[in-house]
Specification:
about 140 residues; 2 strands
């Protein structure tokens, strides 16, 4: 079970990152912009399977955005599974940023903030998530 301070930190980080990603994902999907800045298509690397920001925007909206809000709600309602959800979401954030680094030629400051948030979530949640999963495996 996450300590009270850790739980508050996890809820705040997941909620803020999730809500920010919902807004960014929505604007990427409908207009190819983030924060009013038009994202140029030439930012896609040679490895990118994308030619525009529609699919990345939808992934940001649903996976990162809704995933963050859902993780915050799980952490508020279930301390044991909240740590598992926070660990998974931290890994999702790290994976998202690795994808950005592979598929894009440019980064923004927010890229590094989200990467830090992902590592922070993993560090905060890992010990309790392992205990929760071990406990669940013992009962089966």
């Amino acid at each position: 079970m996450l300590r009270r301070f850790d739980r508050v930190a996890v809820v705040l980080v997941t909620a803020v990152v999730g809500l920010t990603a919902i807004v960014a994902g929505w604007t990427m999907t409908i207009s190819g912009t983030v924060g009013g800045y038009v994202l140029p298509a030439d930012w896609f690397s040679d490895y990118s399977p994308f030619s525009d920001y529609l699919v990345p925007g939808l992934l940001l909206l649903v996976v990162v955005g809704a995933g963050g809000v859902l993780t915050a709600m799980v952490c508020l309602n279930d301390t044991q599974w909240g740590s598992v959800a926070a660990l998974v979401y931290g890994l999702v954030l790290i994976g998202w940023i690795v994808g950005e680094l592979v598929f894009l030629t440019q980064t923004m400051v927010l890229t590094w903030v989200v990467l830090f948030a992902g590592f922070a979530l993993v560090a905060l949640a890992l010990p309790d998530a392992v205990q929760a999963l071990k406990g669940r495996l013992r009962t089966h």
